[in-house]
Amino acid sequence: MQSFVDFHKKVVTWEKGFSDRENTTDELHERFEYLKKAITNSLSAIEQYVEKVSNHISRHQTRVTEISEKLAEYMDLSFKQKLTLRAASKLHDIGKICIPEEILNKPGSLTQLEYDIARFHPYIGYKVISKVKVMEETSIIVLQHHERVDGTGYPDGLKGHEIDIGAKILAVADVLEAMTSPQPYRFPHSIEKTLKEIIEGKDKLYDSEVVEACVKLIEGNKIKL
Questions:
Q1: Hey, CA dihedral for 189, 191, 196, 201, is it positive or negative?
Q2: Cβ(52)–Cβ(199) below 8 Å
Q3: How far are the Cα atoms of 12, 34, 108, 156 from residue 5, in angstroms, in the given order?
Q4: Tens-digit pLDDT profile for the chain (225 aa)?
Q5: Sign of the C-alpha dihedral, residues 149, 8, 89, 109?
Q6: Helix (H, G, I), strand (E, B), or coil: what is residue 73?
């Protein structure tokens, strides 16, 4: 697993080829330090900061939380698991605040370096949230929410039972919301196309039990997009 120092070096390298933005590295460091302080103070503080910095990330996290909670309820997770997943869903993309907007909102294909930087956001979120002892389990879900059951995910290439059930639920909720919402670089996909892709990823990318729960809730109009 890479460190924040490694991430910082990648950003510096990326900056050398991007002359329209100054002091990006200092901004990233400042945001990272603020995030650590904010999460220590309260969940509310970090949510307010995310909303201030990026309305898009804030709206996405709020909607993903709603979907995750319905999946967790349907799958009969324990009360503790539900609370942990709820917190993780509300914070799962805070690491993106440290990713340059020019990468997150780039309309075309990313370079390999830009792709590597963008993929670092789960680890940044994990490092921030794990500073709070009572949120250690939450930080694990944030770290793992881009892992895939066949081992093709990131940052650690975990497989199957190595991935927390909360992270498996968050993975599907995250994809479902992202694909059906307008993005800076594309129009939203239809629910039919989105559900088709999720079903095709069953047992390969996504946990089968979570996918089945997702399908049942959408077909029963319990999840509205």
A1: positive
A2: no
A3: 11, 17, 28, 18
A4: 556 677 777 777 777 766 555 556 666 677 777 766 665 565 666 677 676 767 788 889 999 999 999 999 999 999 999 999 999 999 999 999 888 888 888 887 889 999 999 999 999 999 988 877 778 899 999 999 999 999 999 999 999 999 999 999 999 999 999 999 877 667 889 999 999 999 999 999 999 999 999 999 999 988 877
A5: negative
A6: helix
Helix axes 55-74, 165-179, angle to 10 degrees: 130
- Name residues whose C-beta falls within 8 Å of residue 188's C-beta, 6 or more positions apart in sequence: 179, 180, 181, 182
Question: Which of helix, strand or coil describes residue 170?
Answer: helix
DSSP state letters, 132-153: SGGGHHHHHHHHHTT--TBS--
